[in-house]
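>> received
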Amino acid sequence: MNIGPLKIGVSSQNFRTVTGHAGKGRRFMVYETTNAEEILEIGRLDLPKEMSLHEWNGQGEHPLFDLDILITGSCGDGFIRKMGSRGVQVRATSETDPITAVKALLAGTLPEAAPHDHAHQHGDDDHHHSQPH
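>> returned
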């Protein structure tokens, strides 16, 4: 399968593994790929606290909106809606290795994350209705 160039972000607070809480996260690895064999890390975002999407005031452009897809360990529905409104697909996964996650995404085999739930939210934050694979 030949796909056009994709810009894929991976939330990674330690720049080593896929981490969760993407809305509050400030560190992201950015990959570009034209196919599943050619995956290049083209940059890293290390954003100030006020640029986490949770804190962002909505003014100007946000660097996460340049992505086509964002892979994260977990996120809430509000984050998914905000990213989706800017044309960015969000995929939450249980995979912890960034390159493995990108390859699995491209192959259509990215495992889903466990449902995201926070005690301080309404509990209707479960955006995955199927069982994890």
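>> The chain has one domain: 6-107.
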